[in-house]
Write a structure and sequence with these properties.
Shape: elongated
Keywords: NAD, Oxidoreductase
Largest sheet: 5 strands, mixed
Oligomer: single chain
Pfam family, one: NAD_binding_11
Structural class: alpha/beta
Order of helices and strands: EHEEHEHEHEHEHHHHHH
Protein name: 6-phosphogluconate dehydrogenase NAD-binding
Strand order of the largest sheet: 3-4-5-6-7
Number of strands: 7
CATH architecture of the largest domain: 3-Layer(aba) Sandwich
CATH superfamily of the largest domain: NAD(P)-binding Rossmann-like Domain
Helix content: 40-55%
GO molecular function, one term: NAD binding
Length: about 280
């Protein structure tokens, strides 16, 4: 735990066990993790979960006071971050958004990409923790919602890249080429990037049942991006296409697969049947 003393809470108690073995202290309510002057980190699945943990019964704000700081690492709506920042100021504390890019293995090794936004002085307080968690910390400004905008943009680009690679490999397979060989050729010659290499391998091998980022959570993020684009009058044509791809896969029971199951959708649309999934 990099030398930090932790009080930890999870709505699913069993998920705390690895942290408890490392010396963390479990508490029964979110409010018990916070006290005036303390720092609390949250990472939750959606806006509703964050609001419940923060504003609900025995929520964080019940224990907040002068000098308290809430570091929110959830992928949520920018408007939710802005609203929570205002509520925290009213309680005498600060709210910082610090969204992340990276799969669980990156988190475990402190190699997340982090986007941070909020009040300058509060960002200084969290700088050491963010440097422990991430390989790079990008400052997105003082708007509490800015880090959420950047994260939604990043995820939209990630989903688009995976869709493009899925369609490319399907196209190659329909020409009787080997998916793995094509994936390697493309990455070695043009797309030498961790995203294409990691997801290209999953797409080439068609292994989608070990979810590191579930499709239904990716779909939630995509919908947030579309909602934000509509409010800003910023058309996102690829996002609309991805929405239909993901919705179709969720409707056919694949919401709990890794979101790279997008590759399965592209293959099925082309009349290919893959035995692995």
């Amino acid at each position: 735990m990099a030398g930090f003393k932790l009080k930890v809470y999870n709505r699913t108690r069993e998920k705390l066990e690895p942290l408890l073995k490392l010396g963390a202290q479990a508490v029964n309510f979110p409010a018990e993790t916070a006290e005036p002057g303390s720092m609390v980190i949250t990472m939750l699945s959606d806006d509703a979960a964050l609001r419940d943990v923060t504003l609900g019964s025995h929520g964080l704000c019940d224990s907040f006071g002068s000098g308290s700081l809430h570091l929110s690492m959830s992928t949520i709506s920018p408007d939710t971050s802005r609203d929570l920042a205002q509520r925290h100021r009213q309680a005498g504390g600060d709210y910082i958004a610090a969204t992340v890019s990276g799969r669980p293995d990156a988190a475990a090794t402190g190699k997340l990409g982090i986007y941070v936004s909020g009040a300058s002085e509060a960002k200084k307080r969290v700088a050491d923790i963010l440097r422990t968690l991430g390989r790079n910390v990008a400052d997105c400004g003082e708007d509490p919602g800015a880090a959420n905008v950047v994260k939604l943009a990043a995820n939209f680009m990630l989903f688009s890249a995976v869709e493009a690679f899925a369609e490319a490999l399907t196209f190659a397979e329909k020409q009787n080429l080997d998916r793995n060989a094509v994936m390697k050729a493309l990455c070695d010659n043009l797309f030498d990037d961790v995203v294409y290499r990691n997801y290209g391998k999953l797409l080439a091998e068609q292994h989608y049942d070990d979810p590191q980022f579930k499709l239904k959570l990716a779909f939630k993020d995509l919908k947030l991006a579309i909602q934000c684009s509509e409010s800003a009058d910023a058309p996102m044509r690829l996002a609309e296409s991805l929405h239909n791809r993901m919705l179709s896969l969720i409707a056919t029971g694949r919401g709990d697969c890794d979101f790279s199951v997008i590759g399965r959708g592209a293959a099925e649309e082309a009349g290919l049947i893959h035995a692995n999934n």
